[in-house]
Amino acid sequence: MSTPDVISIGYLVAAVLFILGLKALGRPRTAPRGNLLGATGMLLAILVTLLDQSIISYGVLVAGLALGGLIGAVLALRVQMTAMPELVALFNGFGGGASVLVASASFIEAVDLGRADNQLAVAAALTALIGAVTFTGSLVAFAKLQESLKWSGFGGIQIFNAAGMTAGVVLVVLVTAQPGEWAWLWALVAVGLVVGATATLPIGGADMPVIIALLNSFSGLAASATGFVLENSLLIIAGSLVGASGLILTRIMCVAMNRSILDVVFSAAPVAVVGDGDEIYEGKIASTSAEEVAMLLETASRVAIVPGYGMAVAQAQHAVRDLMQTLQDSGVEVVFGIHPVAGRMPGHMNVLLAEAEIAYELLLDMGQVNPTFAQTDVTIVIGANDVVNPAARTDPDSPIAGMPILDVDESRTVVVIKRSLSPGFAGIANPLFAADNTLMLFGDGRQATLDIVAALVNA
Amino acid sequence: MTLLLAVTLFVLAVFLGMELIAKVPATLHTPLMSGSNAISGITLIGALVSAGTEHTTLTTVLGFLAVTLATVNVVGGFLVTDRMLSMFSNRRKRRE
Question: Per the CB 3.0–4.6 Å rule, which of A147, A265, A280, A356 could disulfide with A317?
């Protein structure tokens, strides 16, 4: 069997492993095996690629693999579970960036050897554009999630982005029309890098999970487009599998917010913070103490806990588990209400609660938990804001109007654990805090939860 | 590979991807995303060829950077997914 045949068969087996892996990742029981299958497919693909006879030097490869492997392993093993969205965004960006570099290098080589044709050029151009947008888009998302970047753009940024995207399309045509002229490709990469950053800048808050899922899809599409450049079947297959699954996730997130993807990407103009909510909150805020909450909980028979991004920030997931345990020990039914876009990436809350060893049968999604709030004695909102804001239902002018929310205000009493009355990522006031059946417990999420547990135990 | 064949592969794989992911519970959204993200690091195999061919210094440098970035994506992606998923299964074992 010739070496190219061995490589092709290796790629075929790797593609099958990716497919089986993705399928297994979709079910809780088989998910760890699915990840292993995917990793095995990747290892196989790397090993057979090293047989490629056009590779004449292994020194550079070993150096790159060693360096990348080290960085990846350290990041993956060191990161706090609460910082997971940032890390996923970062890895995503690296994948997109790698695709740009590969496509550029191959295109330059093809131009030098006089082999660049229109087909190659259009594939390289698309890779450059999608990959560059993915790279800077992910890095900006990373910086925003880390909160090291607070700037959300400048006036007219939407027009700027539209102009940038138009320039990108023009440059794709130019690269294709003049495949021998690779300066156009660099211009295209530059435009992609700028637009990726400026398109992600204004996006914040509840829209973040949509963007993370979309960028995930883009990194797959960039890999797939690279496959067209290299005429490599495995890149095309694996890249488009990921591209498609990312699009499905993006769609799930959009449905959860009652918004279209175009709406999320293009209408996310920088939201002017609507006052500081004084006119809504004035004289209507009922503040409470951990002891008072504990007394409420003692007489409750059903308690719902609604976590949000603030739980991640306060690292409160273990304290929440203790609270659940204490309540369950005294016979209280406890459930968790999880909004699909709570947190900063799809499934964010589920990961944190799993880390705290809370059974996932107790994690109810929006459709399951909403009809039950009316029969719930106490709902504890910890670190969630926009996803429980009744303005989404009642105020047609609100930036989040029409977004499906968790109807926590229907429960008998709502306890909101929050540092202050500051608005959530959407930058709007929350009438829930001023509602008659709402008590505010001001403080750090973790400490406040532990205080409630202590008050329950000492009672 | 002809363009038509490449497009055929692309279209079929997109449909397959959508079928595979269609009904995934919310609990698995994050691991699924980071696992599939690691798979999108497949661009690594293209990077290996670019870097190893040593066509010019420029393509070798681009290739080296690509290998490094893609390897971070692949190794980090699979490891972090495994870490997340082991939290799910640890709990299951403990309850059994």
Answer: A356
